[in-house]
Amino acid sequence: MVRVGVIGATGYAGAELVRILSGHPKAKITLITSRQYAGMRFDEIYPSMRGLIDLTCEELATEHMFKRADIFFLSLPHKIPMEIAPVLINKGKKVIDLSADFRFRDPAAYETHYQKHTAKDLLEKAVYGLCEVYHESIKKADLVGNPGCYPTSALLPLMPLLKAGLIDRHNIIVDSKSGVSGAGRSLSLSSHFCEVNESFKAYKVASHRHNPEIEEILSYETGKKIKITFVPHLVPMTRGMLTTIYASPEKKVTPGDIGGCLSSFYSGRPFVRICDGNSLPDTMHVKGTNYCDIGFRMDKRTKRLILISAIDNLVKGASGQAVQNMNIMMGFDETAGLAQVPYPL
Amino acid sequence: MVRVGVIGATGYAGAELVRILSGHPKAKITLITSRQYAGMRFDEIYPSMRGLIDLTCEELATEHMFKRADIFFLSLPHKIPMEIAPVLINKGKKVIDLSADFRFRDPAAYETHYQKHTAKDLLEKAVYGLCEVYHESIKKADLVGNPGCYPTSALLPLMPLLKAGLIDRHNIIVDSKSGVSGAGRSLSLSSHFCEVNESFKAYKVASHRHNPEIEEILSYETGKKIKITFVPHLVPMTRGMLTTIYASPEKKVTPGDIGGCLSSFYSGRPFVRICDGNSLPDTMHVKGTNYCDIGFRMDKRTKRLILISAIDNLVKGASGQAVQNMNIMMGFDETAGLAQVPYPL
Amino acid sequence: MVRVGVIGATGYAGAELVRILSGHPKAKITLITSRQYAGMRFDEIYPSMRGLIDLTCEELATEHMFKRADIFFLSLPHKIPMEIAPVLINKGKKVIDLSADFRFRDPAAYETHYQKHTAKDLLEKAVYGLCEVYHESIKKADLVGNPGCYPTSALLPLMPLLKAGLIDRHNIIVDSKSGVSGAGRSLSLSSHFCEVNESFKAYKVASHRHNPEIEEILSYETGKKIKITFVPHLVPMTRGMLTTIYASPEKKVTPGDIGGCLSSFYSGRPFVRICDGNSLPDTMHVKGTNYCDIGFRMDKRTKRLILISAIDNLVKGASGQAVQNMNIMMGFDETAGLAQVPYPL
Amino acid sequence: MVRVGVIGATGYAGAELVRILSGHPKAKITLITSRQYAGMRFDEIYPSMRGLIDLTCEELATEHMFKRADIFFLSLPHKIPMEIAPVLINKGKKVIDLSADFRFRDPAAYETHYQKHTAKDLLEKAVYGLCEVYHESIKKADLVGNPGCYPTSALLPLMPLLKAGLIDRHNIIVDSKSGVSGAGRSLSLSSHFCEVNESFKAYKVASHRHNPEIEEILSYETGKKIKITFVPHLVPMTRGMLTTIYASPEKKVTPGDIGGCLSSFYSGRPFVRICDGNSLPDTMHVKGTNYCDIGFRMDKRTKRLILISAIDNLVKGASGQAVQNMNIMMGFDETAGLAQVPYPL
Prior knowledge:
Strand content of chain A: 15-25%
CATH architecture of the largest domain in chain A: 2-Layer Sandwich
Radius of gyration of chain A: 20 Å
Oligomer: homotetramer
CATH superfamily of the largest domain in chain A: Dihydrodipicolinate Reductase, domain 2
Mean pLDDT of chain A: 97
Number of strands of chain A: 14
Structural class of chain A: alpha/beta
Shape of chain A: globular
Distance between the termini of chain A: 33 Å
């Protein structure tokens, strides 16, 4: 059993990590921390876990804690992981960071959209944890920057088609819709029940920090500068993310080509499901799962390709993919702990 | 007081008509019909109306009823209005039809997407009731085809910019999100609570019947063939529609040009509000109102214009616009009955 | 036109006051204040009001403001109204306070459940603003303590039956369920979207501060000490309150007696609707209205009376009743500004 | 591995059975049926299951199917199980029926509230599947009548206290609140999204068919006739049931007595969690689990005991308890397949 520490266990992504890891056949949580709830039992904060999870939150104390786990999940606000990760890596630990701190290859890009980067040397070692794409690098990685939820939902449908040259890289629009849990457990008027319920809106239009994250990966993988238009929206529901992507297929590309490319790229990848012609992704179909469902339609009249992906923002968009990364890093079955059958509704 | 008949008063759009008309200073409902609830009081079906609305549903009997009202709202499934409207028009009545039966100038377009049209001669007389655009024709109309909810939300932001030549007509994408009331009161699994709640999905991707409706109007008004890519989505909430439109501004077009064009086009139009630079439309801000809020952002990096509109699908998207049409047809103040202050939440 | 000041206009009850008063035929809002948003336009905080409400929030400055209105609504946290009301009353103004500060006749009861009362002399002058019961006193009042939402929903069904001696005063249980807007606009984890959505729970079981408020009024009106068991619950919806009351009918009391008593007590009262035998209250039927709907069933097998009431917690449970109080105090038609037809859904 | 047949697999309870059983370490689903979807793959109806559940719905044909499973779950409308169960029992199969057909000892009670009973002889053999109470009988049972959701939520808190004589059996009120999934997947206006969303109401007040079910069990177990007042309500959410019970403690009974009695009765029972003094049940804390959480408060002022229970209506209220019954019948660990850690939100 690998010993696992969850640093920042009481936010939504942290709690989801605890849920998933507690059912993992080869991992055991040996340590959880929480700034706000140090000293409290985890099941006092999440009473659904009573009788199932027997853990108590501790204050973070990296220097003394590192011995108690082999691998650390950092589920913390941006900036703190830059301070903690170097210590853990130096001690020979493996680290999966759910913040943006280790997602960018280019520190300048990070610094433009976040803040000064204080662990630039680690950026080279860090691997972007989009499992279906960086599988081989993740195997050898000690430090993984776990992708953002929006980037996961956009990159998985786009990557195969761009790499295969089936769509025009100059004309990509990503229209995403996210459940409210993506905004986390910190209080804000924009997550206040009566402000969100029975409401739908766009936010951070063309200025969300996941926009450069998507672009860096697409550009790197295709070797060409790719810019996308990205607009996120907020859906009055707890979990789920649906992303509708508009692209221009290259000449003579058929729906069969698109379907074939996606199916072939994700052949053997356990967590991507390509929808057949009769169905389309729905966030309800991925709730609680680590799946990314991908469907598409070709609008012949306008020669446009519409790609639709659905993920659970807290699972494949955060904690599930983080555990998938651990599985790959540790040489476990990639689906270990992630094959739970979801609630049908 | 003009005497008003609401034909099909117990569906959601019909009930909304009853609500709005009952507060109208110059109109009086003299007749309501319902196939399903004939003989029942309206407030038995909508008990919120008890003490406020004193009306009883009748069976539809056009030949005998025409005398009892001066203007008729038809809130019925497609196909039936084609049969009723000619009778009413022949009797000198004014008709506002909320179905698609009189929205198309081109009967072939209607027949492609709906069914055989049985009152083609009336199509010429019918005016498309997009009030802010067809104001002058509506004044003189006897028969108005009230626009669909999606077309209203797409046409209002697009029309001024296309007419002014500020955006490329070949590259328009309309990504719409609608509350569930748009699907009406008829039972179906797709409106069953547990199938919709906590779910977000696209449907009828690039194949919704409002797609040709939008295109016909845009093409007619610009004198050029315009095709758009249109994808509707379903939001787990009762009311509201947000439409995100992606367009390519022509060279040298600035945000100021866009804002100026919109503001100028809708100057003096009481039901279009252009958002300033700090705010963006939210369906909550138009709930229960006849407003269409329009905002935009220019994504300089990708040279793309993002237009966002919000309407209440049952008001500006259906019954409110229908009453606005009546106001224009009858020479009333355009806002009569429609200036109610909405619930703040 | 009476000039009205809304002190604390940007909380949910305050905003609802602004909505209702702005449609009032005999009142004009001349002043709104907000601690948090002083200097901002009201429609910046509630953008749905753009084009409809032209008001700017001011800092509260009682000493300088009193001249600008004839009647003041205080929609503030408990304790502040005790400081402001005396000043306004001294200046000859009328005051309707939506907090608990002037709801109790007995200062000791207030002090037990809230804090030290600093304006005890005013308690004698203050009238409890349950309009259907204290109509005559309200007419002459300068200071009204507007009832809490739970007390309104409990007192209206219970009062007639207790006064008529039809139910046992020793055996009353009040099980209430409230929408989330009752918790206000202040941030707290208990109103955070993901903590409330898809959740139902009781809170402050038998320890809510509305419990003594209900008891004081019932005891005073019947001349006998009445204690009730009161349990509030939180419903994942924005507006609405349903209260289910369990009582023991006195011997030989029939359903006809109950119905007759309720109908007769509320005969001529415009905002109480007694449901007939076929229907029962539903919060949806009162949303946005000032109605209290009351229904009942007699469980013959257990000789128990089940009373059910529904109100909109923000209207009859707060701001609507406050305006109704103003109407009575000023000699206006009791329904002025409150007869708006609600949204059917 | 025991071979399991799920008869009626595509309703909500049926789908939940498939979910739970598919993760069961000692059971294998060998057969699923569906009237409506015969011939279709299960994951076409519940696409979330794609890649996880490989089953195809068949037409029900009891005579030919019995050989294919050792134990059958019947998740069908009332009346059909009475026809099927005798055939299966005759063939030596074990049957767990989720309808009301085998819940009543007294056929007259069943016939009063449902219809003529056509398999009365089996009623004697049938065991009421409230696992925590009938554990010993269930061990030996071939036919289990799985309890209704409301009865489960009411009986678990009441049973220990009534058996111990701590509360007055003449004065029990059960106020229950259920999520919408309890109404099933069949279409009806009362489950139509816009009719339920943002609405809260009572229904079948003192006339719900679960009322006599609760009473029969309580009366049988205490040996005394017990009648309760029962009022169910509908909550605008998918899953969850909260039941608030009002009872009168016998003289000198202390909170400690109540807590002690509950804790002792459920000592060693894995699926009942007694809340300590600081917490109370919330449906969110049991969502997706087979737990029944029970909390209580004593209202000293009114000498009343308030018991609160929370279950997931589809799990402990239906399919989870059914699997728990199977575990007991087959001698498996009682928690087998039911120990999944739930989503934290």
